[in-house]
Amino acid sequence: MRAYLVDILAVGFFILEWAVYAITLEHTAYGRESLSARMNIYREVWVRRMLDREARMVDMQIMAALQNGTAFFASTSLIAVGGGLALLRSTNEALAVLHALPIDISPSPALWEIKCVGLILIFVYAFFKFAWSYRLFNYVAILFGAMPPAGQRDTVQAEAHVVRTTKLFQAAARHFNRGQRAFFFALGYLGWFVSPWALLVSTAAVVIVTWRRQFASNAWQAMGS
């Protein structure tokens, strides 16, 4: 057990950082100043302005582009799962390569397989998030098609439809963001294949990079102006 204590602490740090970052971004007042939260405001603006237009073909084309992007990431997740399974089946070959390196960083076969299973689970989680996001975007497209005509934009029914569509739109984006976050943390998780110390460093690097994009990037500054 002592031999794996550093690995356990490193994985615990990885899980904790992922959970804290996600909770801070989605469930705190600080997170409401993030780039994702600011974009949610413009999703509502988009839906309200679409209500004023009779011709909505451009809106549907933009929605199709969002759906295609989500489908791409869902497909990529499945490919990554397949790669992880192939890596799991090639344990002996992978350990032989690592053992031949000038610095021997090869773990035990059991630990290697645990690492591979963890990576596969991350990509499975990402797939479910992207797949659900894709389905929600489909629902949003249906609500776009059911949008009341511009002549009824001042009615109670139109306002209710705008609110309903905006909430579903934001939910689709939230699940997409969770899937992308899983991809980012999967890159950090790869550090564990080198050593637990590398996992600590790579996890911290992922958190810093993703935090900067949400709260200190040029895009964040532009959306705050």
Structural features, described:
- The chain is mainly α.
- The protein contains 8 helices and no strands.
- Helix 5 packs antiparallel against helix 6 (156-189).
- The longest helix is centred in the middle third of the chain and has 37 residues, at 109-145.
List keywords for this structure.
mainly alpha, elongated, 0% strand, 225 residues, 8 helices
Oligomeric state, counting identical vs distinct chains? single chain
Helical residue percent band: over 70%
Distance between the termini: 53 Å
Question: Structural class, from secondary structure content?
Answer: mainly alpha
Largest sheet: none
Q: What's the count of strands?
A: 0
Secondary-structure blueprint:
Elements: H1 5-27, H2 35-51, H3 57-89, H4 91-99, H5 109-145, H6 156-189, H7 196-215, H8 218-224
